[in-house]
Amino acid sequence: MSIYRTNVRFGVSLQNRAKSVSSLNTRYLLNDLNKYLYSDLSVNTPYYGKVCALYGLRRTGKTTMMLQSILGMTNEQFNKTAWIDVTEEDNMASLYLDLQKLNEQGYKYIFIDEITKVEQFVRVSSLLSDEFAISGIHIVLTGTDSLGIYLSQRGELFDRSISIHTTYIPYYEYTHLFPNATAEDYIVEGGLLSKSGINYNRDENFKEYVDSAIAENIQHSLSKLKDKGDLGALYLIHSRGELTNVINRVIEDKNHEFLLDAILKNFESHDIGVLHHYISDVKDNDILSYSADMNVENLSEQIKKDLKILNYNELKYGLTENELAQIENYLYELDFFDDVKYCTVSKEFSISDNPVVVQPCIRYNQAKSALKALYNDPKFVKLSGDKQEFIYNKLLSDIKGRMLEEIVLLNVTRSLSDCFVSQFRFYEYRKSPFKNGEYDMVIRNKKNETFIFEIKHSSEVEYNKQTKHLLDTEKLDWLKENGFKVKEKVVLYNGKTLDKDDNGVIYLNVSEFLEELKVYDRNYLYNKNGITDGNEDNDAVNISIEDDFEDRDI
């Protein structure tokens, strides 16, 4: 009979469990975890009295990373290591007694998985720090319900913990985890890992993931809170049985509009709604006729049904700004959303922060669900199979193109944190010096050197079409007049990297470009040890971007 009240592993049992992930590549974040594990916890040191919390959505490698850290231990360290699997039947008293016993037995590294299943965790989590970390035990914890960990760090564990956020998996880390992956794979599967560590199953129901990883995550934590405090608004939505609908609604619309407006207006799929623009260059009369006559309202209703999303007027209760703000804030705290900048150049100049979904596969699968609604449209199904396929693939390809723009913007924004990174959108106005158009990305460094980009999903060079904005003298003149010194004009695409042409335009392979962002990741540099990646010819283009950057107003 076990002397422990919870499920405690060590020795052979723990060793066998750790070996189950030995064949998997490691997250770069493992360096941060190891830094904590082998730190000095003495008084007056940075980690004194602190626990380490792995914080992020499901399927982002938290438990795997803990096991991989154990694989790297010496025998002496491993012999002082224990693992606790928490269940719904456990309580803080049982966990406390087991930690006391492990402390008395000399254990110095304790991993606690599914800590948020303990009902009192949020209210008494400071015990982990004040009783055990302070005595020299390295405690690493994680849990499915990230809201619980977030709340504990705002309260009981405030200033008593360090966080390692796992939700965001940049492209360069994705290709490290899956060496044969491409930019196309990242669009379709990027952001989530399966329980076995391989790519997230593209056939799995992504709505179930959203419901379990986010909506149920929140609901589970809310049900365990005794004092709802400033989370009362979320609790009210939860008690009305509408939290899943509202969260799904936010996730669909947040990429394009402010949260309040997006929730309170009637549902409209942004991906389907622009069909006419995407196929306007097609010569087939049947396809053009369908594009002109398409009933967007019927398609939107079908999409809404597929995604199980209720319109505002279908919710039993109205939504307040406070309720919506709390959902928005939580999704940002989970790293589910992050912002990229859009600059609007028209009669006036403005900068706005626009949210994107950090995990591309969620965005992609939601767009695919929207497209499936085409097959429920009577006019669409009357088209021949090859014409249906043409329209579907045309739309899907363009959606991937828009996603690639978001992916590049987000990855660059995160990596080049000291640079100004934005998309620039030019809009004509009366007596304007330029025509409508955009730079998909603009980067400006400390030297005020500016790099302008066109981003294309295509693998083909279509020079006039792909460079027209980069070479537009009116837009270039505006940049010069407003303090942007253009150093490079770049087309990012899925084709081969080419030499700079006579007009000064460089074609770069987008995968190679995104992979080179790893040189700004301190964890990658820590582990590199002189290993090259075969893309060194492109390093100068990317590394020179950030040199001596200095913030200044536009």
TrEMBL record:
Residues of the signal peptide: none
Annotated AAA domain residues: 50-174
Annotated protein name in UniProt: AAA family ATPase
